């Protein structure tokens, strides 16, 4: 006997009043709720239908509780059915029992390594299957992301909300069964307060412009003619026009690392030439009128001037007006303050290594966020996919040779620019442990493609072989060398030479939301979160378990 379940949509979508309908006196509810048998072409169908009347009350439409009729088809027959069953059993055995001698998947990476496949193929397959075969794992991550974002709001350095969120992460990691969950204090973190701020265009017409002051900016109340420049060259060509004016850096987005230089140094360079204030075209690849903040800085010896980002659309408007020969005058008001340095914490939990626990694979994201939006993409989701990678390893009962630790690092957004980077404190405090690999997810936990890599060539080849062999099912086999790495794994590379990976994803949408009010949980997709966690879990587990360490820290 073979059993087949089939779904067939039938009848109108539920209007949510099903139970009212079946209780109406004009329906034969007993007949409707009784299983019926029907012979169709050698199969006997057993159907439990729940009926409701058609809108005009003359015909009966069928509808199950889930808008569909589940039909249990009981095949009748003799020997042929036994043969079918035997085939299913054979296929089932082939699927459920890993055959290490079977040929590897078709379309494999050129970095495919057969011995890695033999040693870690089954576990990688199990991790990927558990993480991605149903919606629940991704949904769990997304629900936790919503909880983190909605409960605490933005997790800005220097706020109680950040430290409450850190406590919550520690509690939840403990509930998950992670080991050695604890916080480590990070002193001297940024404590900049935005306060009230606005910018108006006064001439050629009155218009309030969407803006966000840049983190670390001084306060100011300045009004003046505006001069727009497209790059440093134009600023210096027109240096004698700058004094007493407000400079707009209207720099088109190319890459983040290139364009963000104007956010870091705009106030320094404009202030040096005597500008009274500065505006920045938001560092963003696509805009829906949302300005994007971020850290800025000053240098000793130059006059600090107030510096704010305006929406891309506002920058285009100003450029258009200037292009037609009209003078543009603006009034910028910022009341920001830098208060006494605050304290936050790095928060962490782990699966302790079974053989060499002081050798560590560390992975994580930053727990702090900007003060606008909810820090869902940057970097709540990044921390959550790392955390759930470790949780997955724990849940599967895996105990690798080395320790796998997830860390939520403090004060990434303004660290090293204005304050202390939590990851620097982590690297110093854990100097006596040997970090064989450091992985960060802070480029958006979107569809994973692989990793970017910074480190020695020998470990690069191993990483390429591991990814090429074990991540084919996720299409996440890339290991891209030479593009730099994330701020939170850089300290381990700098202090121990530890190879540093950044999760590489399809970040098309990253700079749409980055550092803006639009960075909210709805932008993150549960399936993509699950795939990111699976990618991280496979690499973290295998590197933690390799017989020879990926890298011997200096
Ligand atoms: Zn970030």
Structure notes:
With 554 residues, this protein is an alpha/beta fold. The chain has three domains: 3-75, no CATH class; 114-189 and 342-545, Zn peptidases (Aminopeptidase); 192-338, Glucose Oxidase, domain 1 (3-Layer(bba) Sandwich). It is built from 15 helices and 24 strands. It has helices at residues 18-22, 29-32, 79-96, 114-132, 136-152, 160-175, 232-237, 256-272, 312-323, 376-395, 422-429, 457-470, 490-496, 510-513, 526-545, and strands at 3-9, 36-40, 43-47, 50-53, 60-63, 68-75, 179-189, 192-193, 197-203, 207-208, 211-213, 220-229, 246-249, 277-281, 307-310, 329-334, 337-338, 342-351, 356-366, 402-409, 434-440, 448-454, 478-481, 500-505. The strands form five sheets. It has an eight-stranded mixed β-sheet with strand order 7-18-20-19-21-24-22-23, with helices on both faces. Strand 13, helix 8 (256-272) and strand 14 (277-281) form a beta-alpha-beta unit. Helix 5 (136-152) packs across helix 10 (376-395). The longest helix has 20 residues, at 376-395. Mean pLDDT is 85; it is low at 1-103. Residues 366, 378-379, 412, 442 line the site of zinc ion.
